[in-house]
Write a structure and sequence with these properties.
The structure holds two protein chains of two kinds.
Chain A (H helix, E strand, L loop, with lengths): L6 H6 L24 H6 L6 H12 L7 H8 L6 H6 L8 H14 L5 H13 L20 E2 L7 E3 L3 H5 L4 H13 L4 E3 L9 H6 L2 H18 L3 E4 L2 H10 L8 E4 H10 L11 E5 L18 E5 L3 E5 L13 H9 L3 E3 L18 H4 L1 H17 L4 E4 L2 H14 L4 E4 H8 L1
Helix pairs in contact in A: 3-6, 13-14, 16-17
Chain B lengths: L4 H11 L4 E2 L2 H5 L25 E3 L4 H14 L3 E4 L15 E4 L6 E5 L4 E4 L5 H9 L3 E2 L11 H7 L7 H4 L2 H4 E7 L5 E4 L19 H4 L11 E8 L1 E2 L8 E2 L6 E2 L5 E7 L3 H14 L4 E4 L9 H8 L9 H5 L2 H9 L3 E7 L3 H18 L2 E2 L6 H13 L12 E10 L1 H5 L5 H13 L12 E4 L9 E9 L4 H20 L23 H9 L5 H13 L18
Parallel strand pairs in B: 2-4, 3-4
Antiparallel strand pairs in B: 1-2, 5-6, 6-10, 7-11, 8-9, 8-10, 12-13, 14-16, 14-17, 15-16, 15-19, 18-20, 19-20
Helix pairs in contact in B: 1-3, 9-13, 10-12
The chains are: A alpha/beta, B alpha+beta.
Chain lengths: ~425, ~550
């Protein structure tokens, strides 16, 4: 699809501003009713999905041209998909998140770039990671781990650590723990270590579609050559990329997030707890595991009208509105840990507030990113929880940074960390 | 004349550089497409409201005051809007300054002893309701739904909604007001003007509710309302609302003191009689002909789609063939929804018995399919939160209401054939042309209690079209012209579809004076608009508002 293909969406936008809020049925307070971090931080209408539709239409119609403000409007979006969920409360024939991606792709094609993102993407091309670290060190996180190395050895399940878990020194232990837990539970697991490649998903959300495609093809080729059938990842971004962005390119791998695998193993009695963790925690749904983590459904079809002017699709088009994301497995794991009390924030599941790390925002707009994370920490604190738990290293890193910047005391855990503590 | 750099710099000095912009693309996001629906004008294919000179985001009444004074100094028009739901909130002329009030979004106070809240412009129905419910109170949510500004509705617009039967119009609920007048002075209206708190709009203190508010409101054309107090009503339910389910089919399982029914009737006379009996009995918390907005023929299928997260619009044709859906649709032909909320267990029992008695007397029934637990809990949440209001636009993205049979409940239902059936038959013929959704002619939606306590009903016949389709948009416009002519010929009065023709014309800008004078001069009491002209001359000496404020400038012969 091209940006022009979304012109009818731009003209059909309801102008209702639902995209700014969480679904109204779910509003529990004034304080935590907002859904889109971009408009919440930047305030001008242009920074909502409604506004971005209008800005894109203005550009396509030649009514305006690229300016610093336009570049700011387009890139200052975490692509969290909150607008997409709220929009689809009332609409079945609009795809605001897809349009926002296309708008980013167009700016990249037209050379309207942010230097901060350019640096990251150039580094990605050379060193194969999003962390501005040397590619040669990618496998260091697994040093000393007794685990099979693919492709030299074969394993039923490939563990893909992802860029953040491979390089973030504060977080690598989580990846090591995940591998150990799965292996000890009897999973035939292997890693690619230094041969692992960036999934490309974050490049996609920044607007770099070509770079994403190159990385996807490279990864799929490597997996196919190694005989990989099942991939498990502890990273929500990688999970979304593998399960939603790769299949349209021909991928046919089974993709699981670590929390799904852990949940399965706990239910099967292959992971048992022996310790109590007397702690009150709250769970943050990563966007890429939750509302953007719905299973991919192949579809090829076209728009048609019934009853004169009702816009539908032939054949029936899959509807991605956050309803079928991965929400229960991480909660089930947490609830199964003895002593752990799970309390919910106001904005959860498909209408969770974003952590602020996505879409290139952490790299290009650190203040906005930090504010978004701080908002979530405030919400977590309002529950009385001691810790915020998640299932994505990008969310966890952004929370740690925000907490440190504020001198706060909230603890941050990955679900995996707590499972390990309880064993 | 574009805004001078000097004026821009002075405005920037008031709100700060991060809260002002004149970037062309950003300004275009503050232009309303009149092809989609102009509430109630057009639709005009690919016509937009004019581009503003700049957008400002004021953060306080003092900043608003500074902006307005500068506008007076430079003779620049300004237009405030809070939630930008319709064309009303957008400029009528090029180079107007657009005030986006979203930074002023606080609920300043909820007085649970005296049942009112003090709010800023960007407080919306959903957030005020959620906060009010925490102290056992509720707020009226007006027709455009939970996404819209409470203050804008109460101070400057219509304020009617599904719960008006119990909670009144917003103009009935307006208490103290803080008003930055068009010349930049701040006036606090009612009790707050005497430093006595926000509890009353009519004194002690300056009693100017009629001036600042009137019946329809000033539509953002007479200064800026920066705070107001709104009356709240009892909420005998939990907080927060216990919502469950997958989107968009959220449901709320409320305690047994809540009931929601879709009532069906054997005739339109029975329909109207039931309304009167409900008014007399004093029952009902929300009462509205809601789901008929999808159309008489489509509403059963749409209720099934919306209450099931696995369904999409693509299922509509299959559902229309389902005998159970057909039965449900037939049962709902002459219908409305009603929520009963008992303040005690005895109260809900009494209300339910009273309703049963009303149904017995009128031959009406509770539509059985809507009593299924899933549909019951879905429709209960829908009616109380009004968080799906923009399903108005679900089919293709465009809608508007036509006719507007406003009056006592039997105004729309009397006549032979009943007016509602006459309007339905008229629309069915236009649906055959293919430009609007074929919905069975009757898409009439509206309250059965259009004022507090009942006594008034207002139906607009929803018409759905595709704003991205030239033929559909222009065909809809032709239909609306025909509907307006038909309504006038029949003596039903001007319809909703032309409600704002007096203000905004086919190019998206101010209606030419001779047409405006003709429209406003033809209403039943045109002197009101001449009177408003005097207000405007006094309070808005530099004429910095716009034509949405109804003034009649020429003497009437």
């Amino acid at each position: 699809m091209a940006l022009e293909d979304y012109k009818v969406d731009m003209e059909r936008c309801s102008q209702c501003s639902y995209c700014k809020w969480i679904p109204f049925d779910q509003v529990k307070s004034w304080r935590f009713a907002k859904g889109c971090p971009s408009i919440a931080y930047n305030n001008f209408l242009s920074y909502s999905a409604r506004g971005r539709y209008a800005v894109a239409l203005s550009l396509l119609n030649g009514q305006s041209t690229y300016t610093d403000r336009v570049v700011d409007i387009v890139y200052k979006c975490t692509t969290c998909g909150s607008c997409d969920v709220s929009d689809k409360i009332c609409r079945y024939n609009l795809e605001p998140l897809e349009m926002i991606h296309e708008l980013k792709f167009r700016l990249v094609e037209d050379g309207q770039l942010l230097p901060q993102l350019t640096a990251v993407i150039e580094h990605l091309g050379k060193e194969n990671n999003m962390m501005m670290k040397p590619g040669a060190g990618r496998g260091d996180w697994a040093e000393g781990l007794d685990v099979k190395r693919i492709p030299g050895e074969s394993a039923e399940v490939l563990f893909h650590a992802g860029c953040r878990f491979s390089y973030d020194e504060e977080l690598v232990e989580t990846a090591r723990t995940a591998v150990t837990l799965l292996k000890n539970a009897g999973v035939d697991i292997g890693i690619m270590g230094a041969d692992e490649s960036c999934c490309g998903g974050r490049a996609y959300d920044m607007g770099y579609k070509e770079e994403f495609t190159g990385l996807a093809e490279k990864t799929m080729k490597a997996w196919t050559a190694a005989g990989v059938r099942t991939v498990v990842t502890p990273c929500a971004d990688c999970f979304h990329t593998f399960s939603r962005l790769y299949p349209p390119l021909g991928a046919k791998f089974e993709v699981l997030h670590t929390v799904q695998y852990l949940d399965r193993l706990i239910q099967e009695g292959k992971i048992k707890f022996s310790k109590t963790i007397p702690m009150r925690v709250t769970y943050h749904d990563p966007c890429h595991l939750g509302r953007r983590g719905e299973p991919y459904v192949p579809w090829e079809g076209k728009e048609k009208k019934v009853k004169n002017q009702i816009v539908v699709y032939e054949p029936r088009r899959p509807r991605y509105n956050g309803a079928w994301g991965v929400y229960d497995p991480p909660r089930d794991v947490l609830k199964s840990i003895p002593g752990l009390e799970l309390v919910e924030m106001e904005r959860i599941r498909e209408y969770a507030w974003c952590c602020g790390a996505g879409g290139g925002v952490k790299e290009a707009y650190p203040d906005f990113s930090n504010w978004t994370a701080t908002e979530r920490i405030e919400e977590a604190k309002s529950t009385g929880a001691e810790a915020i738990v998640s299932a994505c290293p990008w969310c966890e890193r952004n929370f740690i940074d925000a907490i440190n910047a504020a001198g706060d005391k909230m603890k941050v855990f990955d679900v995996t960390d707590l499972v390990k503590q309880a064993i | 004349m574009a805004l001078s750099r000097e004026a821009y710099r002075e405005l920037e000095g008031i709100v700060g550089p991060q809260n002002i912009s004149d970037d062309p693309a950003l300004l275009d996001s503050y232009r309303y497409p009149l092809s989609h629906t102009a509430i109630h004008i057009g639709p005009y294919y690919r016509v937009y409201t004019p581009r503003g000179a700049a957008v400002l985001l004021p953060g306080s009444a003092e900043e608003v005051q500074g902006i307005v004074k500068l506008c007076n100094k430079y003779k620049v028009k300004f237009k405030p809007s809070s939630t930008f739901w319709s064309a009303w909130g957008f400029p009528l002329e090029d180079d107007t300054i657009q005030l986006d009030m979203r930074r002023m979004d606080k609920i300043l106070e909820i007085d649970d002893k005296n049942n009112f809240a003090v709010v800023e412009p960007h407080v919306i129905g959903a957030t005020l309701q959620a906060e009010a419910m925490k102290v056992g109170l509720n707020t009226h949510i007006h027709g455009p739904g939970a996404s819209c500004s409470c203050l804008a509705s109460a101070t400057a617009l219509g304020g009617l909604g599904p719960d008006t039967l119990y909670m009144g119009h917003h103009n009935e609920n307006l208490l103290g007001v803080e008003w930055v007048m068009p010349d930049g002075e701040i006036l606090r209206v009612g009790s707050v003007g005497s430093g006595l708190g926000w509890f009353c709009c009519d004194g002690p203190g300056p009693s100017l509710k009629g001036l600042v508010r009137g019946m329809i409101g000033t539509n953002g054309a007479m200064g800026v309302f920066t705070k107001c107090a709104i009356k709240l009503y009892p909420w005998p339910g939990p907080a927060p609302l216990p919502v469950e389910g997958k989107p968009p089919a959220y449901k709320a399982v409320l305690p047994d003191n809540f009931r929601v029914y879709t009532l069906g009737f054997p005739s339109w006379k029975a329909w109207a009689d039931s309304c009167y009996l409900i008014f007399d009995a004093g029952i009902g918390y929300v009462a509205h002909r809601q789901f008929n907005m999808f159309g008489r023929d489509l509403k059963g299928a749409m209720v099934r789609i919306l209450s099931d997260p696995t369904r999409t619009l693509s299922d509509i044709e299959e559902l229309l063939k389902d005998p159970e859906v057909q039965k449900m649709t037939e049962d709902m032909k002459r219908d409305y929804q009603i929520v009963l909320a008992g303040m005690t267990s005895g109260d809900i029992e009494w209300q339910d018995k009273a309703l049963d008695k009303i149904l017995e007397e009128t031959g009406g029934w509770k539509v059985k399919a809507m009593l299924e637990p899933d549909l019951f809990n879905w429709s209960l949440l829908y009616m109380i939160r009004l968080g799906h209001k923009n399903l108005n636009l679900v089919f293709g993205g465009g809608y508007d209401g036509c006719f507007g049979l406003g009056g006592t409940p039997d105004f729309g239902t009397s006549g032979e054939p009943p007016r509602v059936e006459e309007a339905t038959a008229f629309k069915v013929e236009w649906e055959k042309k293919g430009n609007v959704v074929a919905a069975g002619g009757d898409g009439m939606m509206g309250g059965i209690g259009g004022m507090g306590g009942g006594g008034h009903a207002l139906w607009e016949n929803f018409t759905h079209f595709d704003p991205a389709d030239k033929a559909s948009t222009e065909g809809t416009f032709e239909f609306f012209n025909a509907a307006a002519r038909y309504g006038m010929e029949k003596g039903w009065g001007p319809g909703m579809e032309k409600m704002n023709d007096y203000a905004r014309w086919t190019d998206g800008k101010t209606t030419p004076k001779e047409i405006r004078d003709r429209i406003l001069g033809a209403v039943a009491q045109p002197e009101a608009f001449r009177y408003q002209r005097k207000f405007k001359e006094t309070f808005n000496p530099n004429d910095l508002g716009d034509g949405y404020y109804r003034t009649l400038d020429d003497p009437i012969e």
